Amino acid sequence: MSPEPMPHGAWPSPISTTDVARSGLSLGFPTVMGDHLWWEEDRPAEGGRRTVVHRHADGMLHELLPAPWDARTRVHEYGGRSYAVVPGRGIVFANHADQRLYLAAAGADPWPLTPEPDRPGGLRYADLLVHESPDGPELWCVRERHHDDGVVSRSIVSLSLPTASLAAAQEGRTDGIVERVSGSDFYAFPTLSPDGRHLAYVCWDHPAMPWTGTELRVTRISDGHTVAIAGGADESVLAPCWRDDRTLYFVSDRSGWWNLYQSDLLGGARRALHPAEEEFAGPLWQLGGRPYQPLGDGRLAVLHGRGDLRLGILDPATGTLSDVEVPYTGWVPALACDGRSVAGIAYGPRLPRAIVRIAASGRVELLCGDLAELPEAAYLPTPRAVEIESGDGRSVHAFLYPPSGPDATAATAAPYVVFVHGGPTGHATTELSLEKAFFTSRGIGVLDLNYGGSTGYGRAYRERLRGQWGIIDVEDAVAAARWLAAANLADPARIAIRGGSAGGWTVMAACCASDVFAGGVSIAGVSALAPLVAATHDFESRYIDWLVGPEALYGSREPLARAGEIGCPMLLMQGLADPVVPPAQSEAFADTMTAHGVPCTYLAFEGESHGFRRQETKATALAAELSFYLQIFIAMD
User: For the chain, which terminus, N or C, has the lower number of CB atoms within 10 Å?
Assistant: First the structure.
């Protein structure tokens, strides 16, 4: 007997708000050395702090940083890899509370390696690299300095690490930091040649972002002589890697796609290793991830594809690229390799994010999963890649997640929520998300939109948003809603939109510009540009120049100026400790909506930053979001 029809949003589901809130270990940045592995891992139940886990050769897991230690760097505010392994000595990590670097050795409390700044967070470190020099281990990294006058400067520095006895660390010595490279606004990927004589790195200056224009340089350590290898104002170069002492690999989008290249030390004879209309890297929002790694036999383990990235093996000599047979459909662009095996973070639509190691024999080993238990497969949606026609005949990419549940049917067309990712230079993948399943298992469909400007589909697709933020993204979101209705997938009266950060901007702007949405949910959304430019952090302080243009255009784009035109209810949520999008952005929009008599709920969370980390916050926010959808959807069934 078929189940009785039930209202959308009220389908029985085993996925609770608590399940979703505690599901994300946010596994990140693996390191592999022989039979040993390390990685970062969140603790949602402990305020979202981040620790480092060591997997021993016997398979035992050891948490290296107990509470209250929190391994998170705030360089660029988005951070990245927060630790580096010092063979035989422990790990070096950036502590979130004071942003100092500490050495953590087995059986001992962490000791500071860098000086205490004049004010908390005044000195920050990221992109950590350990180099074994003839005089002992050295740490090379990007240092970010926040000056008293508000100016932020960056450089590449090195410091000698304590000997095996750890005597220097125990004595509290934090001297010996040497500034190696300075003068540019931003640095990434400090990479020493095998002989230690040359430093390769990527740099760029305001107003560029790392996906618009960067430069690859090589500096001779002995005298500071520097050569520009590749890059410029209209070329994004990333991830240098030494083949030998005189040859570099790197990623460049010179062809319109982030492809792999090889060049000599003088920057001549650039050669594409495997020209393809695919991406071999992702946007540099966080520092420390490597999208490819050299193997012991001279080949490269690479990530490539459109949208999701697949794992392949590339032979630089022949250009041959062969995919590795694994059950995962996508990989996070942060590979690790010790010459014999490759480790990375893989995922699939019905496989949770996991640390995976692939041996030289081809054996695939799952080492740690993001979820201890999965719901029954029938409650998990299977995404389908779709292309939607938007303004001027543009083709727009998205992933469709229909409602999915074994114990319910419905007599009416489904409600849908259009998900809009942040960035805006980012993209949605097909990674398993209990958050999406939370809604689809209850009868609410999801369309995850990669609007024009998203990464994963080449530079021309990214460039669609240049000077068009608030126009192209909005047109694509509205087109997505109309496509859902025209395809008879969604009830046209029951389509909502939600997004966070830059996605929140698109949510608010789309609700101002069109009546296709029954409601909108914005999480830490941008509503006004001038206050954002005045208050935001240095990394994105000139981003609006590229996204919008001069200040004269702000009023015609920003949602706050049009908040009185919204005719649908909205839910706004915000962390009160957000350094990227200040709370005033959501507060001003909520106040304006209320003043115009439009229903608006504003929820603020103490101690939360840009993106919720605490388990209780995540559960509360998700419950509020579902309640909002039920109010605008379920009454229509």
Answer: N
